[in-house]
């Protein structure tokens, strides 16, 4: 098969009257006009990035100058001062050889051409932008702790617990936009150990009022807790002020800590739930506070007095950019015709289920309840009261619950989960006179991941039955809204449909049979680089895109979906089997791809999609649109006028920005599709890489926004188009199967052998919700 070559889509025209919003971008009002010289720097022996940056250079192996050095290649011998590195068992080297070699001259003219849509992104452009990033970060990284991009400051630090505190950080990045360069400045946050006497830290770890309480000595348990808390910390020995030395803690001894000072050093361990919640609250700020803190960060950066910017001829505005935006119209959602209110137009991104029945209510005739708690902790009567309220809500919402008194089973949360689920399955079957069980309602004692993962692995891949997990705290006083949300999940897990958009608002889908696809890859949990990745493709199975089927794979650690061709083939066949139609159009939303990988992903995955179509039929060629979606970015919007803000102070749902701060000429936009609940809302970034369906910007923006109102788990518009949201859920679910150490060994197409069981009998319903 001949390899096609692709080109990323250019921007089409737009419609609608613009409004103005602020954004956390600051214009570079003056760019370097001279040629910037790029040098490669090699340091040997190699040292960790921390030492590299602290001892020599910012930018690892790159150095940029505004004037040529008096040599093109030169070798330097450098010896560090004593005491400049912490004393450890493996002490770092003190003598280094540094080789500086001229790499290239960077002509800024290429960048000017690119910004004004007169040239492509050349290697010269990339190096110019890279140089600008190093220039703006160089001075600040020498003053404050820096982690990759953000720098952190103790100003406004908040104490957490046990000698730890939250620090505010600031992110900065040079970004090419329409006709100009901008600096994107945003907030970050991380955890540091408090500086000060080590003995004070020990007292805080143990929750003591003061270091004096340590005079009584430490128990073995306390000693272990302290050693775990302080191991690998960097400290200064102040016993002899004229000869301060630095050390790294290896273990705890009986030596006095009164003369030892703790360095402010970042907390590197994984945060527990309590600390994670505290950090989230610290990092979460409403739009007004966030905008003010970004301005504080700009003041700390102090670009106006930055000598390096002056040397390179750069100037940056002190004012947040004001950009053009538009607010898209809100779609109408269709419920069952028998509803008192069969159509609803959301208000500020949300609505409720009152007086509404789902489009297609599932029938539930065989099910059971499995409580992972003792009778003492949760009596049968409390369970029955909750089940009664849940059944009433399900009936009101359009489901048909013919079994009103499901059997109640109990299990030990640390016992044999497989045996417990199988017993619950048998109880349901026996109560229904031999009918196949449809659902097990599992009541969990806490939010622990292991039990939840085991339940899902066994029910999805061993037994083949839908499960609905709920926390026991919700059973005490059943809340109608909570029961309604559980009902929405249960209905689609049993094959029902909740709602869809009226035809006028999904015209692209109903004009001709169209399949929506969302793809995502989930990588191992942080800190585990050796585990496999999980790929998921979720695709609509009907014309109105109200239900989705999932196809999941385990693969090597890569961002590409390595078995996409077979996954697409499965999805196309499922669509045809469900509605008897062959899709004539494919709208493919791809999640989690960095800009540097756009062309690589496009060439690999678009070819796989086309190949899948040709496998099914040689002349089957549906038109394809390939859209990349990103949520991990630092762009934020702030409303200027009150009429364009919601009650949280965020921009209104439907706010779209497709000019001023977007790509100089490619087809991209930012869409804020959800209402703000906490903090400052993050818009979703969309970029069209390939389009055979003739989308203009308005049509794709409206369709994407409208689809965000069809997420089956709630009655709110969400921040991502549902097929991508579902793909993320399905990939995360797949990771749980191996998290629980299942017994079925499989091997991916890339040869990654891991424990992974195939989904059993649930592939055609939304079991992953």
How would you characterize the overall build of this protein?
By secondary structure, this protein is α+β, with helices and mostly antiparallel strands. The chain is built from 17 helices and 35 strands. The strands form 8 sheets. Strands 27-26-25-28-29-33-32-31-15-1-30 form an 11-stranded mixed beta sheet, sandwiched between helices. The protein has a 5-stranded antiparallel beta sheet with strand order 7-8-9-2-14, sandwiched between helices. The chain has a 4-stranded antiparallel beta sheet with strand order 4-3-6-5. The longest helix has 19 residues, at 123-141. It starts with 18 loop residues before the first strand and ends in a 14-residue tail after the last strand. The relative contact order is 0.12. Residues 439-735 form the Piwi domain. Pfam families: ArgoL1 (PF08699), ArgoL2 (PF16488), ArgoMid (PF16487), ArgoN (PF16486), Piwi (PF02171).
Task: Estimate the helix proportion, in percent.
Answer: 25-40%
Query: If helices are DSSP runs of H or I spanning 4 or more residues, what is the number of helices?
Result: 17
End-to-end Cα distance, whole Å, is: 38 Å
Strand content: 25-35%
* Secondary structure: number of strands: 35
CATH architecture heading of the domain at 502-632 and 686-738: 2-Layer Sandwich
CATH-defined superfamily of the domain at 502-632 and 686-738: Ribonuclease H-like superfamily/Ribonuclease H
Q: Quick one: overall form?
A: globular
Mean pLDDT: 90
CATH class of the domain at 502-632 and 686-738: Alpha Beta
CATH topology of the domain at 502-632 and 686-738: Nucleotidyltransferase, domain 5
Point out poorly predicted stretches. Answer: 53-59, 741-753
């Amino acid at each position: 098969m001949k390899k096609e070559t692709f080109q990323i889509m250019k921007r089409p025209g737009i419609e609608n009257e613009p409004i103005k919003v602020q954004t956390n971008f600051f214009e570079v009002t003056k760019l370097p006009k001279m040629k910037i010289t790029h040098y490669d720097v090699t340091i040997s022996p190699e040292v960790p990035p921390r030492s590299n940056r602290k001892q020599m250079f910012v930018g690892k192996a790159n150095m940029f100058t505004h004037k040529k050095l008096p040599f093109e290649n030169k070798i330097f011998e450098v010896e560090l001062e004593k005491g400049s590195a912490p004393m450890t068992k493996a002490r770092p080297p003190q003598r280094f050889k540094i080789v500086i070699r001229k790499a290239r001259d960077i002509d800024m003219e290429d960048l000017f051409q690119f910004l004004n849509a007169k040239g492509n992104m050349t290697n010269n452009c990339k190096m110019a932008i890279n140089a600008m990033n190093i220039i703006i970060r160089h001075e600040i990284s020498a003053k404050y702790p820096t982690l990759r991009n953000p720098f952190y400051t103790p100003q406004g630090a908040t104490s957490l617990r046990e000698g730890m505190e939250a620090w505010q950080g600031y992110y900065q990045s040079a970004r090419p936009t329409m006709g100009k360069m901008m600096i994107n400045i945003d907030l970050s946050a991380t955890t540091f150990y408090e500086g000060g006497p080590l003995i004070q830290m020990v007292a805080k770890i143990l929750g003591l009022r003061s270091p004096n309480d340590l005079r009584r000595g430490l128990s073995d348990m306390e000693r272990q807790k302290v050693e775990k808390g302080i191991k690998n910390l960097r400290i200064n020995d102040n016993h002899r002020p004229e000869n301060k030395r630095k050390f790294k803690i290896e273990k705890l001894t009986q030596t006095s800590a009164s003369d030892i000072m703790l360095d402010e050093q970042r907390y590197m361990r994984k945060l527990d739930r309590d600390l994670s919640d505290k950090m989230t609250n610290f990092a979460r700020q409403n739009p007004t506070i966030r905008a003010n803190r970004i301005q504080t960060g700009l003041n700390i950066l102090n670009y106006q007095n930055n000598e390096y910017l002056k040397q390179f001829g750069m100037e940056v505005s002190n004012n947040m950019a004001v950009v053009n935006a538009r607010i898209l119209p809100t779609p109408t959602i269709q419920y069952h015709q028998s509803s008192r209110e069969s159509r609803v137009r959301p208000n500020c991104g949300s609505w409720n289920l009152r007086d509404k029945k789902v489009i297609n209510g599932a029938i539930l005739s065989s099910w059971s309840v499995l409580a992972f708690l003792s009778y003492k902790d949760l009596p049968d009567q409390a369970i029955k009261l909750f089940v009664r309220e849940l059944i009433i809500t399900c009936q009101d919402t359009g489901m048909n619950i013919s079994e009103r008194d499901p059997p109640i089973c109990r299990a030990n949360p640390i016992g044999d989960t497989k045996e417990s689920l199988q017993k619950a399955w048998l109880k349901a079957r026996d109560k229904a006179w031999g009918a196949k069980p449809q659902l097990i309602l599992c009541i969990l004692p806490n939010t622990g991941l292991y039990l939840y993962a085991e339940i899902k692995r066994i029910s999805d891949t061993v037994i083949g039955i839908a499960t609905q997990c709920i926390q026991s705290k919700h059973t005490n006083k059943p809340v109608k809204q909570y029961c309604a949300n559980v009902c929405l999940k249960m209905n689609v897990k049993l094959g029902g449909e909740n709602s869809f958009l009226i035809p006028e608002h999904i015209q692209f889908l109903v004009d001709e049979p169209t399949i929506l696809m969302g793809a995502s890859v989930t990588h191992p949990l942080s800190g585990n680089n050796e585990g496999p990745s999980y790929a998921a493709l979720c695709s609509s199975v009907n014309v109105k895109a109200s239900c989705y089927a999932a196809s999941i794979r385990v693969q090597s650690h890569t961002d590409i979906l390595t078995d996409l061709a077979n996954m697409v083939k499965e999805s196309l066949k499922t669509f045809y089997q469900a509605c008897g139609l062959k899709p004539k159009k494919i709208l493919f939303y791809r999640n989690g791809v960095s800009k540097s990988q756009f062309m690589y992903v496009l060439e690999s995955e678009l070819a796989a999609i086309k190949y899948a179509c040709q496998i099914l039929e040689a002349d089957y060629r549906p038109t394809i649109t390939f859209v990349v979606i990103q949520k991990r970015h630092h762009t934020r919007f702030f409303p200027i006028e009150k009429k364009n803000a919601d009650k949280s102070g965020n921009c209104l749902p439907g706010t779209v920005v497709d000019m001023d701060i977007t790509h100089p000429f490619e087809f991209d936009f930012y869409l804020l599709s959800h209402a703000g609940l906490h903090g400052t809302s993050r818009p979703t970034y969309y970029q069209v890489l390939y389009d055979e369906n003739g989308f203009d910007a308005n049509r794709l923006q409206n369709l994407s926004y409208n689809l965000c109102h069809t997420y089956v788990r709630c009655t709110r518009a969400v921040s991502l188009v549902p097929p991508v949201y579902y793909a993320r859920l399905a990939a995360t679910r797949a990771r749980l199967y191996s998290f629980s150490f299942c017994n079925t060994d499989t091997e991916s197409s890339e040869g990654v052998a891991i424990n992974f069981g195939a989904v059993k009998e649930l592939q055609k319903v939304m079991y992953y919700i």
